[in-house]
Amino acid sequence: MRAVTWQGRHKVQVDTVPDPEIVNPRDAIIRVTSTAICGSDLHLYDGYIPTMRKGDILGHEFMGEVVEVGPGSTLVKGQRVVVPFTVSCGSCFFCGKEQYSACDNSNPATTSDASETLYGYPMGGAFGYAHLTGGYAGGQAEYVRVPYSDVGPIVIPDGLPDDKVLFLSDILPTGWMAAENAMIEEGDTVAVWGCGPVGLFAVQSALLMGAHRVIAIDHYPRRLALAKQLGAEVLNYEETDIREALWEMTGGIGPDACIDCVGMEAHGMAIDNIVDTIKAHTFLGTDRPHALRQAILACRKGGRLSIPGVYGGMADKFPIGALMEKGLTVKSGQTHVQKYSQLLLDLIAENEIDTEFMISHRASLEDGPALYKKWHSEQNDYTKIILKPGMEPSHEPA
Amino acid sequence: MTSELRDDAPATAARDADRRAEEMGRDGENAVIGRTVTINRPREEIYAFWRDFSNLPLVMDNVERIDVMDERRSLWVVKAPAGKTVEWESVVTDDAPGRLIAWQSVEGADVASSGRIEFLDAAPGRGTMVRATFSYDPPAGGLGEWIAKLFQREPNVQARRDLRRLKQYLETGEVTSSASPSGRDEDPTEQHP
Predict the structure, then answer these.
(1) Chain A closest-CA separation from residue B50 CA (Å)
(2) Nearest chain B Cα to A26, which residue?
(3) Residue numbers of the domain that contains B24
(4) Structure pTM?
(5) What's the Cα-to-Cα distance from A142 to each of A28, A165, A389, B192, rounded to whole Å?
(6) Complex ipTM, two decimals?
(7) CATH number at residue B143
């Protein structure tokens, strides 16, 4: 089969690799019909995530048709399914608490040592995301082996096209959980840092959950326009002092909840961020938490901080004083995708949530490497890219 | 810790090797490996799985097979470096159904080894805390351990991973694997069992 593989920093290519096979009873094989490139794939592309290996298949947002099942799978050949990016066993203590991304069994024994050292306990498995999370082959491919297929994939009813439901795999539940973690109350002003796909879904979710106002922060005009279209007030940090603006807009109280949808590769020219960039490039620190620092400082006293943005290692100059003295509540984590699948599928089917507005490009799997480059360098225009393995490749130069 | 009052930590977490060895009833030269894992299954079920030693190769990566000889004795065939195997006979020295199993290689075995596995109730609704302690004398002392490390069969790592696989198998019915294709040169179908 054909698959997008990681070859090193800023280098991906499409390779012919062996087809996957059923390994365990609960497995299924999916023929991929749509797969997206995620913002967190950029962290891999930029070489920020340790334990990637040359030749690993990328991609953790994918859906397709069930073509093969093991005897323990509950799926049926021919069904259309969206696959959560998190691999979850469904039977451990954590899955029992619906903390699916914390699954205690989905990271194979031989790959769980690294996260045990790095984070204190072994992390759960995930598709296409380095060997720290199991080294599972990803979904930017024609076929994928899906373990524990009786727990993860959600069956899609006929009549809902791929483009409407694909984002159930990651970014929609991630934006939703980000808003849920902000514990929104009536009258709340919610500030969202980052208007990438997760930020845009967090904006939409926060409004659905009853936020009085949502203020979205970014510097790409097109992304800010999308946030505005959803009903947010927007701030461009290249034109505006964000803390001053948030103070004024909330009458000196501050946002009740702040959501960091940026994560470890924050842009921006603030001094702390430049220092972080130098440190990250010299391997003295891995994370550039500029947006997170700003969110902590901007948040009102007794407010809530939700962190769906991805961080991998250590952060420097973390304003723990502001966090403690103001009594902030922090909620974070990789998304417990399976917990939200059915609810969000229903909201899509009822047209309560719009998913297609952010899709800027659709292309063939073969165009993957060229689009990684574009996604990396032209973030204003490339808001969300979907690869369709069945589609004719474009002949545009990469 | 040198005070008279011992804390409540299990012996394998002790900083002094003497105490660990004393707890195991073996001399201080032996490597002692201990780990506790919580398994979301009843005590009796986990005990029954372990008590039938022929099951253990399902979860113990370096054990090729275990032949059960009788109620107390079993023959362990264990993978060794360079595709070889080592064998020894092991005998059950303590057996409290649902609570504890202990075993030990017989006198004169090439690899002197012993093990003990305890089953403790976890908090209500959380299954069983399984505490395993393994003690062994590497073949040819330090050299054997060096060889073991070289072949990625370092006993500490091995024990930790074996217990993870035990948990996976009993909780999910399978041993988790990320085996799938890749474009990696060295070994495109390399498995992570």
Answers:
(1) 19
(2) B174
(3) 17-172
(4) 0.90
(5) 14, 19, 6, 22
(6) 0.89
(7) 3.30.530.20
